[in-house]
Amino acid sequence: NHRILIFNNHSELTLGASAAVVIGQDEFGKNQPGLSEKAFNRPVGVATDGQRLAVADSFNNRVLIFNQIPTRNGASADVVVGQGDFKTNLAETTDSRLRAPNGVFLDGRRLFVTDTLNHRVLIYNSVPTSNGARADVVLGQADFTSRTDQPASASSLRDPTAVFYDGARLIVTDLGHNRVLIYNRLPTSNNAAADVVVGQPDFSKDAAGTGPASLNFPRHAFSDGTRLFIADTGNNRVLVFNQIPNSNGASADAVLGQKDFL
Predict the structure, then answer these.
(1) Contact 180, 199 (CB under 8 A)
(2) How far apart are the C-alpha atoms of 22 and 36, rounded to whole Å?
(3) Predicted confidence band at 46 (pLDDT cuts at 50, 70, 90)?
(4) Three-state SS across 188-228?
(5) H or E element: which one contains 125?
(6) CA angle 81, 120, 185 (to 5 degrees)
(7) SS3 content of the chain, % helix, strand, coil (to 5)
(8) CA end-to-end distance (rounded Å), the chain
(9) Which of 152, 178, 187, 198 could form an S-S bond across to 192 if both were Cys, CB 3.0 to 4.6 Å?
(10) CB 237 within 8 A of CB 258
(11) This prediction's pTM
């Protein structure tokens, strides 16, 4: 529907609840794609730090930032990342351009973007306040102009779809390699190697599988600081790890969406 829906109080939600605000469209009954400060074309990722809202506007090859969570329909974004202005949507590979971003995350200080078709994650050390900002760190590639589809390793990514930072660890969902990568500290240099892999026995493997220690096209990972939760899309399930893994090939403790791990 090329839109984001906002529900103002999740504690009051009931079955079939109505959203309070729509952005990307000027009213709830519309669903047209567009290219402007008020429009989306297949938004995939959304994140907030409690103040700002960021949207991965995938088919427009950009991320839109709203400096305050919108309270009215059809609100305009304040900043665009990945393009120089709100009227362009070129797919490019530089420190200030994007190619079909899927995931976005805000921690209150920084912006993280999974630049999916560039096979990389971009880290902005401060949340951009002007259009076309340049990223500070790239993961998955040796530099900001490379977009090589590489074999699985501790530093490679293939079509990453989500990124999450809990204040200590950076967690990246590496869709094309059927795994989730964990960096035990926030990377500060390009092409940094991950410390732990989930879904594979080691960093060189990328086969899809079922069972408590395998993944099949995972699309999202989230942590509450203690546990790890993975949306294992190809297996139609969610895996729950009661502790964030600190060694490769860890097994999940619980599965949702299926009666067992197989």
Answers:
(1) yes
(2) 15
(3) very high
(4) CCCCCCCCEEECCCCCCCCCCCCCCCCCCCEEEEEECCCCE
(5) none
(6) 95
(7) 5, 30, 60
(8) 34
(9) 187
(10) yes
(11) 0.97
